[in-house]
TrEMBL record:
Protein name according to UniProt: HAD-IA family hydrolase
Keywords per UniProt: Hydrolase
Record InterPro entries: HAD-like_hydrolase_sf, HAD-like_sf, HAD-SF_hydro_IA, HAD_2, HAD_sf, PGP-like_dom2
Gene3D superfamilies attached to this UniProt entry: HAD superfamily/HAD-like (3.40.50.1000), Putative phosphatase, domain 2 (1.10.150.240)
One MF term in the entry's GO annotations: hydrolase activity
């Protein structure tokens, strides 16, 4: 099983939003950004995209150097938040993943996030040992989740898998690579119709265990 991270395993907003506001406050202090912080809906609605595309939506018309500084600051504030115990998994994620691992199912992450963020969340939440691979666009410099998942499948010689996620990028990554797609319908970040192509939609993460039994 290949899992997206934000909005699938991790309640992103519990860590992201404090870091988001701190990032803009710091950029104003540094004099590289002026004006109000863009609304939270701007970044929450962009989750699942590559970070460079997120900033293009959140801060259109701003120099790319500012976007890259925002990358650095956001990651730094998120890592500090994790160290301070901020950020939460969805309620049944840890137990469900542990149960899947106990059944001998190979578990992977495929995220469009930065490497430090993806690995940091898994490490601080104590889940790294049960995953065979933690793949991120930030580490492998892939241009789409389709390419990221393709690379993962080839590297680990995976012939059959489920792609589990909450955004259209997850559906596309699964379908383009011939995988069964499980759409997570509980985060609320996505736009209408994003999960239309999923094979199955689940209302809570633990529903995956019932799907396996079927």
């Amino acid at each position: 099983m290949i899992f997206d991270l934000d909005g699938t395993l991790f309640q992103t907003e519990t860590l992201l939003l404090p870091a988001y506001h701190a990032t803009f406050e710091q950029m104003r202090t540094e004099g590289i950004y002026s004006g109000e912080t863009p609304p939270e809906s701007a970044i929450l609605g962009s989750l699942g995209m590559l970070l460079e595309h997120i900033w293009q939506r959140v801060m259109p018309g701003v120099e790319v150097q500012v976007h890259r500084r925002a990358d650095e600051l956001l990651l730094d504030y998120q890592m500090k938040g994790l160290e301070n115990g901020e950020g939460a998994l969805y309620g049944d994620v840890a137990d469900t993943l542990t149960a899947l691992h106990a059944q001998g199912i190979r578990l992977f992450i495929a995220s469009n996030g930065l490497e430090g963020y993806v690995k940091g969340v898994m490490e601080f939440k104590g889940l790294t040992p049960i995953f065979e691979g933690l793949y991120s666009a930030g580490e492998f410099q892939t241009r789409s989740k389709v390419d990221l998942v393709k690379q993962l499948l080839e590297t680990y010689d995976v012939k059959s898998a489920w792609m589990v996620g909450d955004r259209s990028s997850d559906v596309e990554a699964g379908k383009e690579n011939g995988l069964t797609v499980i759409g997570c319908d509980y985060a609320g970040f996505r736009n209408k119709g994003e999960l239309a192509g999923a094979d199955v939609r689940i209302a809570k993460f633990s529903d995956i265990l019932e799907l396996i039994e079927k």
